[in-house]
Structure formats: C-alpha cells, structure tokens
Amino acid sequence: MLPELLGTNLCSLRQHVERFAFSVLWEMTPNAEIVKTHFTRRYTIQFMNIPKSAANDFHSVILSKASLTYAQAQAKIDSPDDTDLSRDINQLNQLARILKRRRMEAGALVLASPAMKFNIDTETHDPTDVSIHSEWCFVCLLCSVCVIVFLNLFI
C-alpha cells in the first residue's frame, strides 16, 4: 500500500485537480473496436529505450470532472440524468460490457470475484440489496494490454 499522502492525494485522481499522466487515448466505434490509439506522456521515456519519436510531442494532463464512488457511478448508470457526466459514464459502461462479453466469449479465465457490496437492514441485520462492480476492470485491462503491446515494440 502507498503511504496515505500518496494514496489519498498525490497519486489519486481528484475532482478538478490536474494530474500529469502517461495516457492511452482511443478512438473507438460504438462496438468497442479500436480505430486509433495515441500514447501521451508527461516525462521523457529515455530509461526504457523508447525513441522520442514514438511518444507524442504533447504532455498528458488529466482533469477529473468528478470523484465518484462505485455506488455513485452505479447510480448514474441505473438512473441516468441529462448531464455530460452521466452520458460519459453510461457510454463507458456500454463499451466495458462489450469488452467483457468479448473476453468471456474468447475463453477468459476468471480468477477473482467482482467487488460486491451488501446493504444490510439496520434492525434485522439481513441483506437487503447487493451491488456488483465488475465491468470497469475490462476498460483498465484493455489499457494495460495496449501499453504492454506499445512497450514490447521497443524492448
């Protein structure tokens, strides 16, 4: 685990706070097919023997629109409103579902359980609801695969 200062502040994406990053930007079809991939960076990547021309000439800065818990993001999916944030989350969720379906059809091995949260009745202590958060990991996985392919070109 990271020290608290790093884990909760300096290395965290926080609402309306700029963070330098190494980013993978995709242009995708509505069917989650990658049309174009861009890699951006903040610092020169000399230590990996990657030619400077391989990385983009501009720096990547992330400015988060919102800092949401899984429950807040799920609420935007379950009851979308007419905001850009809600539309973005739902579009990302649709792409994540397509990516998940493709990986499962290709025979993906599932080793870990999805994150689950139980809501408990305060009087009876019985579970009243369960929420599962598993689709988001497929977008992160796609990003990791793209970075691995990119780095393998130069190693």
Q: What does this protein look like?
A:
By secondary structure, this protein is an alpha+beta fold. The chain has one domain. It is built from four helices and six strands. The protein has helices spanning 4-10, 70-78, 84-105, 136-152; strands at residues 18-21, 23-28, 34-40, 60-63, 115-120, 127-133. A two-stranded antiparallel sheet has the order 1-4. Strands 2-3 form a two-stranded antiparallel sheet. A hairpin with a 6-residue loop joins strand 5 and strand 6 (127-133). Helix 3 (84-105) crosses helix 4 (136-152). The radius of gyration is 19 Å and the shape is globular. It starts with a helix and ends with a helix.
Describe the protein's topology.
Layout: H1 4-10, E1 18-21, E2 23-28, E3 34-40, E4 60-63, H2 70-78, H3 84-105, E5 115-120, E6 127-133, H4 136-152
Antiparallel strand pairs: 1-4, 2-3, 5-6
Helix pairs in contact: 3-4
Spatially, the strands of the biggest sheet line up as 1-4
Domain tally: 1
Order of helices and strands: HEEEEHHEEH
Q: Which blocks of ≥5 consecutive residues have pLDDT under 50?
A: 43-50
Average pLDDT, all residues: 77
What percent strand? 15-25%
Strand tally is: 6
Major beta-sheet overview: 2 strands, antiparallel
Euclidean distance between termini CA atoms: 29 Å
Rg of Cα set: 19 Å
Question: How does the helix and strand content classify structurally?
Answer: alpha+beta
Helix content: 25-40%
Given the structure, what is the number of helices?
Answer: 4
Question: What is the general shape?
Answer: globular
